[in-house]
Amino acid sequence: MWGSGRGRWGKWRNRFVARRLEGLVDESRPGAPRTITDEQVEAVLVATLERQPVDATHWPRGR
Predict the structure, then answer these.
(1) Per-residue confidence (pLDDT) for residue 1, from 0 to 100
(2) In whole angstroms, what is the distance from residue 5 CA to residue 50 CA?
(3) What is the DSSP-derived secondary structure letter of residue 5?
(4) What is the pLDDT of residue 20?
(5) pTM
(6) Three-state SS for 43?
(7) Which residue spans within the chain are E strands per DSSP?
(8) Staple 36 to which of 1, 40, 58, 62, CB 3.0 to 4.6 Å?
(9) Distance (Å, rounded) from C-alpha 3 to C-alpha 6?
């Protein structure tokens, strides 16, 4: 278990040594670029958590 993680820890340690705290910031990841903004995500969350749906008494929430 620990053997497989040494490479990852070494990577983070080397980034820290080279760039200090700035080296620990996540680097960009592969894949398609985001198609929605942080503001759009926030709007959906607010609508879901704070507004009541039409013709309903509440949003169902699992517990």
Answers:
(1) 42
(2) 42
(3) H
(4) 87
(5) 0.40
(6) helix
(7) none
(8) 40
(9) 6
